[in-house]
Amino acid sequence: MKSKKSLFGLLGILLLVSSCYTEVIIEDDFIVESAFNTDHVLQSHDLWYIDINATDGNGEVPFLQRAFTVSFNNGILFANNNIVGIGGTGNGLGIAIGNYGTRNGVVDVDHDLDGLWSLEVFAVNNSTIELYDARSGTSYFLNGYQRGNFDYDRVFYENINYLLQEYDVWEKTFTSQSGILNEFDEQNYLQFFSGNNFFRSSIDKPGTALANLRWDYEGGYEVFDTNDETLKTLTLDYDFLGNDYFELYVIDDETIELYHVASETVYEFGGRGFVQYLKSENKIGRKRTKINNKKMNVTRKRKV
Fold this sequence. Notes:
By secondary structure, the chain is mainly β.
């Protein structure tokens, strides 16, 4: 087993266990002391948010690579593999993806699709654990939350790239009366693809069946961070036709707002054809990668 002391020293976590109304000190030695204590740590928080950018190593644990959160609940492993519906699906825990058991400082997972995995469990601080896969030498760092204090808005904005990909199509549902006429007024559908940041758009009329859509424009898209943590921007770079620049806002998990800065026009798009990333063979789901959006030095132009 990898030595925790060599990485983090003797770190402790002070947890209040509400079910027993006792205080338990969790240290390296405590976690490895027994299977019961290991399970106690895993169940100390309702949700473990996987900080994908903190992942250390060149391998992967597939079910952790796909999930935004995991939860350990009395032998059942749950995950939120979608941004859409997070906080509501499975009463906030997501979908059941397998079973787990604990040994001394180890959690054994029997995933419904990915099979058997044994992961070493380490305490990092009072709300963070490390799950270490010895086979690939890869560590995942999970931040613990209770459902009542989980910042769902922050998760949306940190992972907005993935939200764009969780619907087959985004259909324009609103165009503001104010704003200068521009070519984007005619585009009623947007489609975003994962991996290669490819998009395409259509001028077909609202209400068109998805199978009948004809794609008129295509190109590359990019989401940017800004100095404002609550503001993302989006650029659509059309092949041979220049680009459109927007401020990007999330209204809810099925509605986004695009503010076209050049024309000062507000558009709303609703998601159609929700892509739920389950555990079935044909919908394994995209895997998360480290997000390192470029930063734009811009200020918010949308007047609220």
